[in-house]
Amino acid sequence: MVITIEPGCYFIDTLLDAAFKDPNLAKFLVKSEIDKYRGQGGVRIEDDVIIWEKGNENMSDVPRTIEEIESFMANGKFDDCTVQKSISDHLAKH
């Protein structure tokens, strides 16, 4: 079985505005810091994990930094066939 773990942080104005007006929620928020990121939308990072009978394996040995991502994307075209072959090669090793 393969699962995806997707932690994320999203800046949704409607929800933030309501939270700032609610004293029970506002006490946990630092508006000046949150306002720096409003308009960015948010960020999410994903990991795909294979669940094996005797353990699990994180398949996401992908670039994480801006420099790594730019280098990865500059090195060639990554279409569905390339991705499928990469997955097949990975699974063949196990």
TrEMBL record:
Keywords: Hydrolase, Manganese, Metal-binding, Metalloprotease, Protease. One of its GO terms (biological process) is proteolysis. Its cofactor is Mn(2+). Pfam families: Peptidase_M24. It comes from Heligmosomoides polygyrus (Parasitic roundworm). This is Peptidase_M24 domain-containing protein. InterPro entries: Creatinase/aminopeptidase-like (IPR036005), Pept_M24 (IPR000994), X-Pro_dipept-like (IPR052433). SUPFAM superfamilies: Creatinase/aminopeptidase (SSF55920). Coiled coil: none annotated. Residues 1-51 form the Peptidase M24 domain. One of its GO terms (molecular function) is metal ion binding.
